[in-house]
Amino acid sequence: MADGVPPPSPALKPCLLNEIRDLHDVVITAVILPKGDGLISLSEDGTLQVLLKRKGDQYWPSIHHTMQTSCSCMAFSPETRRLFVGTVAGNICEFSLSEDYNKMTPALTYSDHQGTRMTVVLFVLEVEWLLSTGQDKSLTWHCSESGQLLGTYNTTACVSGLQFDVETRHAFVGDQSGQVTILKLEQDRCSLVTTFKGHTGNITALCWDPIHRMLFSGSSDQSIIMWDIGGRTGTAIELQGHKDKVQGLCYASATHHLISCSSDGRMVIWDMNVTREEHHCRKCGEAVCAKCSSNSSPIPLMGFEFPVRVCNTCHESIPEKDRVSTSTFHNSEHNIVYMHYESTIGILLTSGTDKVIKIWDMNPVLKFPEDKQFERHSDN
């Protein structure tokens, strides 16, 4: 085990279904179309493509559009086939896609970030809101039916992650200071609920599980934190399984697995059915320096997949079964910049600095329910 990094799991692993090469630039964001029939990709140079799966499961461009300026983020509503593209100039361009995904028509243009680079765009169909953040350190939300600006909230740092809970209308805002802010959004105003901070680096990814009411945050400090929002107990579990900046987080609610990826290409599948403990000895909580103890051990039930320092007593008392990993580790073999998981079919998309998009079948790893497996195959 080199540098304490768990080796890729030799048994079950994601199945690489396809690779899309010969892209002009690095794809910074992409989404898988319903039933896996294709995908939409956006490159920073403004190249927007719709790629449809044809015979032989090969992807061919159905739409190739070049934006007038460089782009930074995107949101897509499969129910309404509306596409929102954020630019480095602070605008959001909305497009409408035809039912066969062969035609794209410009619709509204939203502009309210003082000409600064957009960082996140999020469309909420249930309330017809378009949320966006920019390097001007602001969160705005528009009515997506009229295009009217509903409200603005100024943040203390540039926002780098954004999630929304429809039931409570809470916005989860992660920023480059490592802080997560919870805001209550109303039609024309918002209020601060709380803030919390557990990362030493900037937030690079957020993922919200509305069923178990858990928020996951990934950071440049290589860690992931699971925040228990629904329990209101302040519980925060740190997950250590990466050796580079966390680039993406996706949650498979059907099987209760968290999928994370880092910029070095490592993918980690976390079994969230496991009950983990909060966390110095990383086991008992006592402060332990190197002089007091040279012992270390992985403690997966506390989220530590790598060996961490423990006191002499705990090192001897930890049973071998508690040292067994509760996660699986896989190498995507490209430096990941973005990931997207389509939970209805168990398919994962990764985009890398090598200008390649990879399509993965995650069902072998996630143990997708049999009824969903049948549904998936019957659609093909």
UniProtKB/TrEMBL annotation:
One of its GO terms (molecular function) is zinc ion binding. It is found in: Early endosome. Gene3D superfamilies: YVTN repeat-like/Quinoprotein amine dehydrogenase, Zinc/RING finger domain, C3HC4 (zinc finger). Its main location: other. Residues 261-319 form the FYVE-type domain. InterPro entries: WD40/YVTN_repeat-like_dom_sf (IPR015943), WD40_PAC1 (IPR020472), WD40_repeat_CS (IPR019775), WD40_repeat_dom_sf (IPR036322), WD40_rpt (IPR001680), WDFY1/WDFY2 (IPR042234), Znf_FYVE (IPR000306), Znf_FYVE-rel (IPR017455). WD repeats lie at residues 196-229, 239-280, 329-363. GO terms for biological process: positive regulation of fat cell differentiation. Keywords: Endosome, Metal-binding, Repeat, WD repeat, Zinc, Zinc-finger. One of its GO terms (cellular component) is early endosome. This is WD repeat and FYVE domain containing 2.
